[in-house]
Amino acid sequence: MNAPINQDTLSVNPRSGKMSPHTPDDLTITIRDERFNRDSQPERWWAGEPFGTAWHNALSATFPRGEAFFIEAVKAHREGAPPKLAEEIRAFVKQEINHTREHIAFNRLAEERGYDIKAIDKRTEQLLALTKNRPPIANLAVTMALEHYTAMMAHEFLANPQHFADSDPEVRDMWRWHAVEEIEHKGVAYDTWLHATKNWSAWRRWRVRSLVMLMVTMRFFKNRWIDAMMLLRQDGITGWRARWGMFKYLTVSPGVVRRIFPAWLAYFKPGFHPWDHDDRKLIAKYESDFPDAVMPAE
């Protein structure tokens, strides 16, 4: 009997030249050069209620600087990557550039509706400034963990229509488009990590990525909570009403945090890989709904 593959022990898939045998050989990362929210005029609570609006506005406010950070963290380790991974890094960069552009447009829309998005952007800039003197491999580990968060939430947003049931249609389409591409490139930072740490032991690789995920989780929810509370105050929602409303939104209905918990826990499994769960059927569903949204990669 063949021994099971330990994903934390680097090996090359001879069919694809990739550093991870779990990434599908036939995966194609497609550049969908879509534009949203240029002429949209949604209500202030574009999600139909204040808590979903605040949570997603808080997320979006961090994306322009956050995705630039992801790009640089991955690019810093592309030297010597197998051809397939190098190609996927290039596609990842193009997708993230487009995401940055669209979230700048979305953030501008939120500002026009009276929200102080620039305050969150400024705090994100200050937090990212603390990473400047860190080893590049540390920034890649953080990127890998945050990419897992974006992939988990992307899956949930596409799989559960409840999240955007009452949303402005164009805003909803923007988030769905972003979610599709996050699923599609969810293994790129992880495979880049495997390439960059090919001389590490399996134990060291697992220990570092697990500790970084715990740290990222604590900071992610702490900072997004602070940002969401700030945005709710701008709607006149404060105190226990704000805290209970946001807690219920995240954990009860639609409950994105509760729903992604099993996928978050899976990250700590020895041998974990983002493509252990192949959810490309959600991408196919999106493309069947929006056949004109697809622009083949160059």
From TrEMBL:
<dbReference type="Pfam" id="PF10118">
    <property type="entry name" value="Metal_hydrol"/>
</dbReference>
<dbReference type="InterPro" id="IPR016516">
    <property type="entry name" value="UCP07580"/>
</dbReference>
<feature type="compositionally biased region" description="Polar residues">
    <location>
        <begin position="1"/>
        <end position="14"/>
    </location>
</feature>
<protein>
    <submittedName>
        <fullName>Metal-dependent hydrolase</fullName>
    </submittedName>
</protein>
<keyword id="KW-0378">Hydrolase</keyword>
<feature type="region of interest" description="Disordered">
    <location>
        <begin position="1"/>
        <end position="25"/>
    </location>
</feature>
<dbReference type="GO" id="GO:0016787">
    <property type="term" value="F:hydrolase activity"/>
</dbReference>
